[in-house]
Design goal:
Blueprint (H helix, E strand, L loop, with lengths): L2 E5 L2 E4 L4 E8 L6 E8 L6 E7 L5 E3 L7 E6 L4 E6 L8 E9 L12 E2 L3 E6 L1
Parallel strand pairs: 2-11
Antiparallel strand pairs: 1-3, 3-8, 4-5, 4-9, 5-6, 7-8, 9-10, 9-11
């Protein structure tokens, strides 16, 4: 089992920044990829970004490329999501997820473990 705990959400104005954290525990992350997804009211959960733990390889959704940055701290078993130039469309509950590395890392199907989510609200 993998446990994931997110933190760092909140309310910010358009153009502002937030940094989310996700602390992982329960298993070694060496064979996993950790990702961020988000879900706005009335919409499906969508891929934001992911990072492979063993080599740090990253991928981003087009909607956040250039504004969001994912990173990891191996010593703390934690990943971060630095979100800059936030827009109202970024408003959602953000979820951290962990899954064994596969070809499905841009899909919710690629992740077996999920955190409880943290709310991000961007006001216009």
């Amino acid at each position: 089992q993998v446990q994931l705990v997110e933190s760092g959400g909140g309310l910010v104005q358009t153009g502002g920044a937030l940094n989310l954290s996700c602390a992982a525990s329960g298993r070694t992350m060496r064979h996993y990829a950790l990702g961020w997804f988000r879900q706005a009211p009335g919409k499906e959960r969508e891929f934001v970004t992911t990072i492979r733990w063993n080599d740090g390889n990253k991928a981003y959704a087009d909607s956040v490329k250039g504004r969001f940055t994912i990173s990891r701290d191996s010593a703390k078993n934690t990943i971060y999501l630095q979100m800059n130039s936030l827009k109202p469309d970024d408003t959602a509950v953000y979820y951290c997820a962990a899954g064994l590395q596969s070809s499905l890392l841009r899909s919710v199907r690629g992740y077996a473990y999920w955190g409880q989510g943290t709310q991000v609200t961007v006001s216009s």
